[in-house]
Each structure stands twice: as structure tokens, then as C-alpha cells.
């Protein structure tokens, strides 16, 4: 039986999961959730995920919300101990650390700008939120100065997760190449992955352009 993934292509965390499904060739049925029409607030969806977020993965009796938990699960079940999430406690600890960094730190800064836009039609952006994103870029640059990818010198699921977030952030605050050269070269490496071209490129652009328009109003 295929796993089910409830998603929206525009959603950065959903796109991370969609890319992982593509990489691992997961037998999957994708189900679109129309956030604009509040499908995620309907009782059946809330029963599955009281947090009312996408993505959600359903694999028989396992129901998972949160893209990071889903990325780990997919890697463990379908990843064949590959380099994206190797079966090594120390390497996994470093990858998990950066997955948590994306979830708690980077994505929060994206959500601070995008939630009011998507959920309540807000327009414009406060300087404080832009400053917070700039601080996050500084931290990301520092991480990527220490290692080529976020959790070492191999691309891992932590990069895939953070990449989708950065693909949104860069439309809010462009990533100045003279200040953040490592971030820009990391983005290029990820953009060139076949799964990123296939599953991320177009929806990330649409998502970014929508945000850009909203913050310029
Ligand atoms: N930490 C969560 C964040 C998921 C999330 O916030 N998804 C947004 C779309 S990008 C959503 O579903 N928002 C609807 C809501 O919060 O009601 C994850 O990584 O899955």
C-alpha cells in the first residue's frame, strides 16, 4: 500500500518531503490540501493532525506531522543507509541538530513573515522581521563556512529541509553575495540537484513571487 502524503506544492516543508519521496522512490499517493480554502481546518484533517499543518504522512497506522520527522522516517524506511541520513549515531546527531535548527530557527523567521500574508491577507513587512532574517543569514553563513553542507561535507536531509526555507527567505530579503557567498554557493549546489529542479524550482518561484508582491504592497 502506498504511503499518503498530504501536501501543498507551495509549502516549503511539504516540498522537502516531496523531494525526499522522489529521491527514495517512495510508493506514494500525494493529496493536495487547499489551505486557502481552509481544508486543513476541517474535522477530518484535524483528527489526523491537530496542528493543522502540511505536510502529513500516513503510512498504515503511522501518522506523522512535521516535515523533519517525516524526512527522518522516510530516510529510515526507504533510505538504504545512504549519505542523506547515514546509519551512524554521530553523523545522525549532527543532521538532527540542523533539522532542528531549520524547524525552530530558520523556518520560524520565514513563517513570521508569511503566516500573516497567507492566513490573514497582511501586506508589507516589519523591519524587525527583516533584521531577524539577516541575523539568520549570518548564522547560516557561519555554518557553511565550517562545512560544505549543513551537517558536514555531504548533502543530507538537513540541507534539503533548510534549502526549501531559504528558497522562501531569499524573496523576502535577497542574499547579498558579497556578505553571504557560502550561502549562495550552497543554494546553487542544491538547485542543481535533479529532484530540486523537478519538485522545488517552479513552486518555490511561485511562492516567492507571491510573498514578494505581498510585502511590496
Ligand atoms: N514545522 C512544520 C511546519 C509546517 C507548516 O507550518 N506548514 C504550513 C504551510 S508552509 C501550514 O500548513 N500552515 C497552516 C497552519 O498553520 O494552519 C513542518 O516542518 O512540517
UniProtKB/TrEMBL annotation:
Residues 1-82 form the GST N-terminal domain. It comes from the Eukaryota. PROSITE patterns: GST_CTER, GST_NTER. Coiled coil: none annotated. Gene3D superfamilies: 1.20.1050.10, Glutaredoxin. CDD domains: GST_C_Delta_Epsilon. Residues 88-207 form the GST C-terminal domain. This is Uncharacterized protein.
Amino acid at each position: 500500500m502506498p504511503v499518503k502524503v498530504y501536501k501543498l506544492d507551495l509549502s516549503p516543508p511539504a516540498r522537502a518531503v516531496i523531494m525526499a519521496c522522489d529521491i527514495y522512490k517512495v510508493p506514494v499517493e500525494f493529496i493536495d490540501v487547499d489551505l486557502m480554502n481552509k481544508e486543513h481546518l476541517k474535522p477530518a484533517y484535524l483528527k489526523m493532525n491537530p496542528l493543522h499543518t502540511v505536510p502529513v504522512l500516513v503510512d498504515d497506522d503511522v501518522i506523522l506531522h512535521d516535515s523533519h520527522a517525516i524526512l527522518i522516517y522516510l530516510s529510515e524506511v526507504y533510505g538504504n543507509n545512504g549519505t542523506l541520513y547515514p546509519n551512524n549515531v554521530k553523523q545522525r546527531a549532527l543532521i538532527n541538530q540542523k533539522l532542528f535548527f531549520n524547524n525552530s530557527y530558520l523556518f520560524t523567521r520565514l513563517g513570521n513573515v508569511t503566516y500573516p500574508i497567507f492566513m490573514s491577507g497582511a501586506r508589507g513587512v516589519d523591519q524587525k522581521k527583516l533584521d531577524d532574517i539577516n541575523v539568520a543569514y549570518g548564522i547560516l553563513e557561519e555554518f557553511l563556512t565550517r562545512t560544505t553542507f549543513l551537517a558536514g561535507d555531504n548533502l543530507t536531509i538537513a540541507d534539503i529541509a533548510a534549502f526549501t526555507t531559504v528558497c522562501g527567505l531569499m524573496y523576502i530579503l535577497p542574499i547579498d553575495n558579497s556578505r553571504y557567498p557560502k550561502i549562495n554557493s550552497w543554494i546553487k549546489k542544491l538547485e542543481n540537484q535533479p529532484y530540486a529542479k523537478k519538485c522545488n524550482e517552479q513552486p518555490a518561484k511561485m511562492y516567492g513571487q507571491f510573498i514578494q508582491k505581498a510585502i511590496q504592497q
